[in-house]
Amino acid sequence: MSILERLAEILEPSDLLTEASDTAPYLTDWRKLYRGQALAVVRPRDTGQVSRIVALASEAGISIVPQGGNTGLAGAGVPPSNGNNLVLSLERMNKIRSIDPANYTITVEAGCVLQQVQEAAAKADRLFPLSLSAEGSCRIGGNLSTNAGGIAVLRYGNMRDLALGLEVVLPDGRIWNGLRALRKDNTGYDLKQLFIGAEGTLGVITAAVLKLFPRPRERACAFVAVPSLEATLELLGRLRAASGDSLTSFELIPRVALEMAIAHVPGSFDPFPDPHEAYLLIEMTSSRENSGVTTIAEEALTAAMEAGLITEATIAQNEAQAKALWFLREAIVEAQKAPGACIKHDVAVPVAAVPAFLKEARQAAEAAQPGVLVYAFGHLGDGNIHFNLMQPKGMKPEDFTAQTHRLNRVVHDIVARYHGSISAEHGLGQLRNEEVRRYKPAIEFELMQKIKAALDPKGIMNPGKVL
Q1: Which of 410, 375, 392, 383 shows the shortest CA–CA distance to 153?
Q2: How far apart are CA 223 and CA 327, in angstroms?
């Protein structure tokens, strides 16, 4: 009996895709950078089916490529080109299994769309704080597998911080039920952390227990212009001291990005009459109504302006104005497409080093590629900057992208000198899995390879990714 016949015994006909027209969306990433082949796309509906599929693949020596919403930026969910693999889509496993408001936890299947989890939490008067631009299509399994970050890491942490327990199908098909809703469990190794951020190379995450938080009742949202990048550090410190843990977001928006959004994304606008070098989108939240967080923000920003740390500021007076300011943050991401080809860098350095890194990396990039447009924005509050390079005017896109390896080396060598990371929240996938060897110590690779060999001795889990 062929592998496809055996899969047909496990799955409903609509959950086993083999026709090219049906499988095509699963074989490439959304940026169209990578394309692969597969024997089939399988869409199991429960953990038992995942277990049987993985056991069958292990027996047959066929690779498994787990896939969530396929919104990743590093090609981790795209199969290799040899075709000797199954793409295992978790999209059918999209149930909210339970929610425990008293314990502030929610148990969800890996195929749940992030926005679905946010809404389920809100119905229980709770908050699931992970927030990404792709939250309407990305799925929890992918968020866990890439250790997703987003705009609220400063206060709530990334997915490593938001997960309490996991259910995982191991590479031999066995099921590890680690769905514990405990904040304290000191009974050995924290196994769930092996699978979070592993990009599907150690097993298939099928469900998770996630942390919830009190739902915000009041928020203060401000858009400010700063005189220099150095001023952002003192401003960050002042706001954190003034607000305690109420500071949720501290996002850097350079002038070039705002101008690009105004020019190419309808609905974008300039909050101030005069241009400035750089801006910050700042948000504080509180779980208490009439908490005074707006007053705290106003007083802290006024003091910062008097100290010369802020040039201009506007504070949203209602929810509509706050949404308009956050629209600008999303618009600068969309506007990147306008100039043509873009070489993206998802990097992190210690927060205190962000201004120095940005200046040095900008100068180095402009020297290495005359005319390049540096488009650096992102999560300044946690040190994660999207340091992207746009093609020079008059240069062909293919000629610019041909410089990717050379320009990556320029940027990432500087990141390394600042003791940073060349992948802060997007993962390695197949985009950075070779390049990272230049920057990670050999002993770290040795340990990672030993873990991989112990859990996946046949090497069937998402080959060609991470390692």
Answers
A1: 383
A2: 12
Residues 6+ apart with CB under 8 A from 261: 268, 328, 331, 332, 334, 335
State the Rg of the chain over Cα: 23
Output the CA–CA distances (angstroms, integers) from residue 393 to 339, 351, 371, 372, 407, in the order listed: 8, 32, 7, 8, 17
Q: Which residues pair with 281 in a beta bridge?
A: 223, 251
For the domain made up of 218-336, give the CATH fold: Alpha-Beta Plaits (3.30.70)
pLDDT in tens, 94-116: 999 999 999 999 999 999 999 99
Contact (CB, 8 A) for 93 and 110: yes
Domain 96-214 has CATH 3.10.20.90: no
Residues in the chain: 467
In the numeric block, which tokens belong to residue 402? 């041909």
> How far is residue 59 from each of residues 51, 53, 54, 87, 254, measured CA to CA in Å?
12, 10, 9, 16, 53
Q: Where are the alpha helices (DSSP H) in 276-352?
A: 293-306, 319-334
What pTM was computed for the model? 0.95
Q: What is the pLDDT of residues 5-40, one digit of tens each?
A: 999 999 999 999 999 999 999 999 988 889 999 999
Count of other CB atoms within 10 angstroms of residue 403: 18
Domain 340-427 in CATH 2.40.10.340? no
What was the pLDDT predicted at 291?
86
**pLDDT tens-place string over residues 272-299:** 999 999 999 999 999 988 888 999 999 9
Q: What is the mean pLDDT of residues 384-405?
A: 96
Q: CA–CA separation, 287 vs 127, rounded Å?
A: 10
Distant-in-sequence contacts of 422-425, Cβ < 8 A, 24+ apart: 422/345, 422/346, 422/347, 423/74, 423/346, 423/347, 424/149, 424/346, 424/347, 424/348, 424/383, 424/384, 424/385, 425/146, 425/147, 425/148, 425/149, 425/150, 425/158, 425/346, 425/384
Question: What confidence score (pLDDT) does residue 1 get?
Answer: 81
Answer yes or no: same fold for 96-214 and 218-336. Answer: no
